[in-house]
């Protein structure tokens, strides 16, 4: 599962890029947009939002009907969030969601969940407890230390395994990055 502390840190972009990179490597991947409040995966990938996760979890559509194949990556499937339901957290905590995850684990090598920001709603914590773990996206200069400490506390409280952090929007011109992102030249003379 992929989340951030707040909107605008790049979690959806990371989710999509991670899914695409794995699919380009020949892995069978599914990307599930569990952000039913502010979905973005469907329009960024040029998919329909008329049928998705919310329709599947409420029993209105089958899994085949809500799963869409990426236009160019044949090993990447996507389940958009669907129409925004009144109580997304209840749907994500349902038995249908647990059964869906089990079915996806059996059918795909990688299941990636794009979740809402962890400090905004409880939805990502629900998904994270069902997933193997969480990746937290942090945008430099946007996410504060207090936000990051709160997110760590929340993950610890629900015993979510955090795989790591992705630092996004790094300003390489800052002095602390001098020498690491610059150009090097080595003169190998025989």
Give descriptors for this structure.
single chain; 190 residues; 3-stranded parallel beta sheet; 8 helices; 17% strand; disordered C terminus
Structure characterization notes:
This protein is α/β, with parallel strands linked by helices and 190 residues long. The chain is 35% helix and 17% strand. The protein has helices spanning 11-24, 41-44, 53-57, 63-66, 88-92, 95-107, 123-130, 145-157, and strands at 2-4, 29-33, 68-69, 76-79, 110-114, 134-139, 162-168. The strands form 2 sheets. The chain has a 4-stranded mixed β-sheet with strand order 3-4-2-5, sandwiched between helices. It has a 3-stranded parallel β-sheet with strand order 1-6-7, covered by helices on one side. The radius of gyration is 18 Å and the shape is globular. The termini are far apart. The model is unreliable at 184-190 (pLDDT under 50).
- Binned, the helix content reads 25-40%
- Tell me the major beta sheet: 4 strands, mixed
Strand order of the largest sheet: 3-4-2-5
Shape: globular
Q: How widely separated are the two ends?
A: 50 Å
| Number of distinct helices | 8
Mean pLDDT: 90
Low-confidence stretches: 184-190
Order of helices and strands: EHEHHHEEHHEHEHE
Strand content: 15-25%
Summary of the model, kept short:
By secondary structure, the chain is an alpha/beta fold. The protein has helices at 11-24, 41-44, 53-57, 63-66, 88-92, 95-107, 123-130, 145-157, and strands spanning 2-4, 29-33, 68-69, 76-79, 110-114, 134-139, 162-168. The longest helix has 14 residues, at 11-24.
């Amino acid at each position: 599962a992929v989340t951030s502390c707040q909107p605008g840190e790049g979690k959806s972009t990371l989710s999509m890029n991670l899914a695409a990179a794995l699919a380009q490597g020949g892995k069978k991947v599914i990307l599930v947009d569990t952000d039913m409040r502010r979905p973005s995966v469907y329009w960024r990938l040029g998919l329909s939002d008329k049928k998705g996760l919310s329709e599947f979890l409420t029993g209105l559509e089958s899994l085949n009907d809500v799963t869409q194949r990426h236009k160019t990556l044949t090993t990447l499937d996507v389940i958009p969030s669907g129409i925004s339901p009144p109580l997304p957290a209840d749907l994500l905590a349902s038995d249908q969601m647990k059964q869906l995850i089990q079915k996806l684990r059996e059918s795909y090598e990688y299941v990636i969940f794009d979740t809402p920001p962890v400090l905004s709603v409880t939805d990502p914590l629900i998904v994270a407890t069902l997933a193997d773990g969480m990746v937290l996206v942090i945008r430099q200069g946007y996410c504060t230390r207090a936000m990051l400490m709160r997110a760590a506390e929340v993950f610890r409280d629900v015993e979510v395994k955090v795989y790591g952090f992705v630092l996004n929007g790094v300003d390489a011109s800052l002095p602390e990055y001098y020498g690491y992102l610059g150009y090097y030249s080595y003169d190998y003379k025989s």
